[in-house]
Structure formats: C-alpha cells, structure tokens
Amino acid sequence: MPADDVLLDVKSLCKYFPIEKGLIRRVVGHVKAVDDVSFQLRAGEILGLVGESGCGKTTLGRCILRAIEPTSGEIKLKTHSGEVVDVTKLNKEQLRKLRREMNMIFQDPFSSLSPRMTVLDIIGEPLWAQGVRGKAYEDRVKELADIVGLNVGHLNRYPNAFSGGQRQRIGIARTLTTNPNLIIADEPVSALDVSIQAQILNLLQDLQEEFGLTILFVAHDLSVVEHITDRVAVMYVGKIVELSETEELYLQPKHPYTEALLSAVPKPDPGLKSEPIVLQGEVANPASPPSGCYFHPRCRYAQEICTQQAPPLEEVSPGHYAACHFADELSLEGVPV
Description:
Blueprint: E1 6-21, E2 26-42, E3 46-50, H1 57-65, E4 72-78, E5 84-86, H2 92-98, E6 102-105, H3 119-129, H4 134-147, H5 164-176, E7 182-186, H6 194-211, E8 214-218, H7 222-228, E9 231-236, E10 239-245, H8 246-251, H9 256-263, H10 304-308, E11 314-317, E12 320-322
Parallel strand pairs: 3-8, 3-9, 6-7, 7-8
Antiparallel strand pairs: 1-2, 1-4, 4-5, 9-10, 10-12, 11-12
C-alpha cells in the first residue's frame, strides 16, 4: 500500500494477559489475546474485522486506541497535520492530545452513556476535555446532533428517555465531536433490533462519505460486514488469518476458517441450498494454543505440515492475504454478494 495512503499501520501487535496463581500471584502463563497482528488501514476506507467471540477483535481495537496497553508492537497513526506518530511510545500527556485524532463507538448503547449526564453534556464531553467552552461548545453539539438525526430540542434530556437506536446515535455524535482521523466501531449494531441496525449502518455509511471517515468496523455478523466495508480481515485466536477486498473474500475465500464462517451466512435466494460447515472440536485455547496452525485441529483440509509449522500471512493474489499452507491449492466455496 502506498505510504501516502496509509492512515494506520499496525506491526507485530501483541497483547498477552498474565495468568496468576497462588498467594503471591505468581505468573504461570499468558493468554495471547492478540498475537503478532499486522495490517494497514488506508485513509477513507472501512475495514471489517470479523471472527468468533473471544478471538481478540475488541482487544485489538482497544489496543490501537491504547485503552488497553499493548504488550509489544507498533501502532503508527497519521495525524491531521500529516505527522506519523507511534501511539505505543506516547506518554500520558502526548496521548491525551492525540485523543482528538481517534475515537471509539461502543457496542452497548445502554451502558456506554452516563445516566447522570444530559445528552448535551455526553456529546460535548470530548470538547470539554479539550478546553472548548461557551457558544462554540453548544453550537458544535447541536450541529452534530442534527447530523446524526437527533432532535436538537431534546439535548437537555437524559439517556433513559431514548431508545437503543437513539442512544447509539448519541454515541456516534460524541465520537465525531473532535473530527477524529480514526474511528474504532466495536460491534456498534449487535445490541440493536434488525430494523434499527439498518438505520445505524446507513448513517455510518453516509457519515463516512460526507466526512471521509476511516473506520475499523469490528463485528461478528458477516451480513453486516458485507454491507458496509471495503475490505475484511478475519481473526482466529488472536491472529489475522485472511485479509482481502470484501467482494473477493466473499466470492473466493482462501482460508478454511473463512469458508466455514461464510457457509453460515443466510442466503437470500431460497433456490440456493447449501449446508453449513460444522467445525469439529472447540476453539483453540489462547493460553495454550496448539502447535503449528492454530486452526489445524478443526480443519478438514489439515495435513502433517499444519501441525508442525505456523503458516505466515502471505499474499496469495494481488491484495488478498491468507495464512494457510495450501491457500494456492484449495478451491473453497464462497457466497454471492
């Protein structure tokens, strides 16, 4: 990817949580929640991050924002001024100043908003933290409320007066307050009804087109990801196992795990009959992952090399990356988009 296009460059990012035992809390192991993840995010695109619950999607997003301290790796972000900074090397004061460049949309619209604050204060909280006061503060909050489809006359109400969809709009408005370069959307529609999901997805698409937003869209619903993203990265037990343009990944998956996920996507055509691929066994334990490829105990294509050597994430075709020893040889089934 040309360097001028890259907004976010993540290299060899790891997050290991210690496992402690005994009275003196001796460290006896680590949970590898994010294990050597590398990818780039170009300015103005939406990258989907998908995988089963517990695969490390949310942890990865929070590490990028340094809401969780990463264990190792680099997170390089291009700021509004064009300067590239390594987020992992910033001190608290530098990180506080960088907060206006990156923000997060949370999964649960009910618990992510303080019940003791009015909508005006919730949306304007990032501005307050950056020292904005007075008329400029109120004007910006009203502008954003209008942009996301909220009634400006209701800004003095509390969150309990709003539905789940309206609360998520409040959260989105708060995220946009400081014109961030990067937004991490952590499953922003998974807690909402299906009809409301469509409204929020359409809103995010409209905002992305209007403001040129760059979004890392974390989700487990592949139907949602197909609708909104430009590219998709698939995670399994802390690692990215496939990364490609959305349409190509859905039509021509190169990793057996991606094929299994796609087989569970509902088909809109009743004439298309296909059986979901039922994976055997359990998801690998991130505290004690198997040798070689983490997916090999559940993979129906696994061979001896898979049990011994971990496959690197390599480019199989232009822009299409997969971590599988047999990505060039397998003919996997996708779904129409």
